[in-house]
TrEMBL record:
This is Pentapeptide repeat-containing protein. Keywords: Repeat. It comes from Dyella koreensis. Pfam families: Pentapeptide (PF00805). InterPro entries: 5peptide_repeat (IPR001646).
């Protein structure tokens, strides 16, 4: 059936009957500014569909060819696209709420300044798609192809993009807040000044990455790998760094007040001048670590172990070193007012729990 045989009156008639549009060619049909509600399109061809400024509510697209369709400035709510072809499509300035894209080709699509909320991209092809200045709020992208994805100046607000390889993604000016990015790869990337506040970055790889001045406050970096990473003057206040690995790291001037480094492994790390008030290093392993001139008031190093640890001119007022086992520790000119050492009664009380810990 040709486009000339299908009019908007025909579409409205099928809607009233509760029947889907099936196997038709809508090429040339102009949907600019139209409202479509509770419509099903199955195996429909609508290349270059003109839907700019339209309003789509609970519209379902299945096995449709919508190459280079224009959804610019459109408003979509409760819509779904399954096994559809949408390469080169335009979504610039569009607003999407509770929409789903499954097994859909969105390669080279444009999403500049789009606002996407409570939506999901599942096994979608997003290679070369551009989300510059877009906002993704509580939106999920899983098992997607992301090579060449553009997230420059985008905002990820509680978005979920797990186990992604960000090395091929443009993240310049990205702002991520409470986003789920665990298991992702950032190795070798320039992430200076990036905002990753409260993000879940468990087991993420930051080997050879530059994170100078980055904002990772309250982020969860449990078991993250930071090898040959630069973190100069980065912000890690109240971050969770449990069991993280730090090898050959320059973190001079790091802000990490209240950060939890429990059971972390640090080797050849510079934390000179760090602002680490109230940080926790219990059970951490520290080898050749420099805390020179760091502020470590009320910090806790209980049961930590290691060697060649330097606290020259550091502020250790009220710090706790209960059962700390450091070989070759240098505290020259350190401020140690009310610094606490090992408590024998406490150590006796902890003996059974310590014996049960895995070496």
């Amino acid at each position: 059936m040709s486009a000339a045989a299908i009019s908007w009156d025909d579409v409205a008639y099928l809607q009233r009957l509760g029947r889907p549009l099936h196997g038709v060619d809508l090429d040339g049909l102009d949907g600019t500014g139209r409202t479509l509600d509770k419509l099903v399109l199955n195996q429909v061809t609508w290349r270059g569909a003109r839907l700019r400024g339209s309003r789509l509510q609970h519209v379902t697209f299945v096995d449709c060819d919508l190459r280079e369709a224009d959804f610019g400035d459109a408003a979509l709510e409760g819509c779904s696209f399954t096994r559809c072809r949408l390469p080169g499509s335009c979504w610039e300035g569009a607003s999407l709420q509770q929409c789903a894209f499954a097994l859909t080709d969105l390669s080279a699509s444009a999403w500049t300044k789009a606002e996407i909320a409570l939506s999901a991209f599942t096994q979608a092809d997003l290679r070369g798609a551009v989300f510059a200045h877009a906002v993704l709020h509580r939106t999920v992208a899983t098992q997607c192809e992301l090579a060449g994805l553009g997230l420059a100046h985008a905002t990820l607000a509680q978005a979920v993009i797990p186990e992604a390889d960000f090395r091929t993604i443009d993240v310049r000016g990205l702002v991520a807040q409470a986003a789920v990015l665990q298991g992702s790869r950032f190795d070798g990337m320039d992430l200076r000044g990036l905002v990753l506040q409260r993000c879940l970055l468990e087991s993420a790889n930051f080997t050879d990455a530059r994170l100078d001045g980055a904002d990772l406050r309250e982020a969860n970096l449990r078991k993250a790998v930071l090898a040959r990473t630069s973190l100069r003057e980065a912000k890690l206040d109240s971050a969770l760094l449990l069991e993280s690995q730090w090898i050959d790291v320059d973190a001079a001037g790091l802000a990490c007040a209240g950060a939890l480094f429990q059971s972390a492994d640090l080797q050849r790390v510079s934390l000179a001048g760090a602002q680490a008030t109230g940080s926790v290093w219990d059970h951490a392993r520290l080898v050749d670590v420099d805390f020179d001139q760091a502020v470590l008031a009320y910090a806790r190093f209980d049961h930590a172990a290691g060697e060649c640890v330097r606290f020259r001119h550091a502020r250790l007022d009220h710090a706790s070193f209960h059962n700390t086992r450091f070989a070759d520790v240098d505290m020259h000119a350190a401020h140690t007012r009310r610094m606490r050492g090992t408590s024998s009664p406490r150590l006796v009380a902890e003996a059974r729990a310590l014996a049960l810990e895995t070496p």
